[in-house]
């Protein structure tokens, strides 16, 4: 045999595509660095290529291109998903119940859809409240700060909201006298979408029309709410901000929408914000449909000019509570 042509030894590992075999430990297939093996046939010493050290890592065979595999589940679900899963586990929900829990449209009655969203809101809020108190050592005041915003995000990710398109007039499933604790609830049921603004509006053609307002006493606005008449202070001008320079309000955005609603005799939903019974927060009560009767400019005590809108309740609705 010609020793000038030495036979090479090849060490091979059979790689199976993912799903066609099992994961394996690569460590037994690699020899230690610089280890020498003696060829039993010719006595030559083969120096193997140095391989990196492995410490019992589990590796998977590479996926060949052009082959489609079943999508693997994510390694870790989001925090919102874990909250939903915890709620379902606590309720002992089966698969059909879980589908109904995640999809409000399984109910045909608009009223039941709204009530279901509000029930889920309370459940998720309580779960997030417990989690936050545990993280902050049980400080109730700090623990409940802005949990309603996080709850809103969870429900929107679940698709747990109804009446998702803005509209003029009555909203299906909502009745006069309905009470809410947070503005985020108003958004999730389609009653008032702007959680940081008192005037909500939409554009029809080239005209902005108000859809709803949240009228509140105090907070520097001095809204006046009687049985069937509301005098509402317009938005803008930093009239309630402390430490900021106030300025005159302008007839733009929500203020312009309310003025247009007067011109076009367009209905406006009114939500009354007031102090809760226990005086630990606010509550929001839906008072029904109103029409803008007139508006004017008025000078405040601090010298700035604000818009005032008079809204009158449309007759024939259920009495206010």
UniProtKB/TrEMBL annotation:
Subcellular location: Chromosome, Centromere; Nucleus
PROSITE patterns: YDG
One Pfam family from the record: SAD_SRA
UniProt cross-references to InterPro entries, sorted A to Z: H3K9_HMTase_SUVAR3-9 (IPR051357), PUA-like_sf (IPR015947), SRA-YDG_sf (IPR036987), SRA_YDG (IPR003105)
Gene Ontology molecular-function annotations: double-stranded DNA binding; histone methyltransferase activity
Every YDG domain range: 169-313
GO cellular component annotations of the record: chromosome, centromeric region; nucleus
Keyword terms of this UniProt record: Nucleus
PANTHER family, A to Z: HISTONE-LYSINE N-METHYLTRANSFERASE SETMAR, YDG DOMAIN-CONTAINING PROTEIN
Protein name: YDG domain-containing protein
Origin species: Eutrema salsugineum
Higher taxonomy: Eukaryota, Viridiplantae, Streptophyta, Embryophyta, Tracheophyta
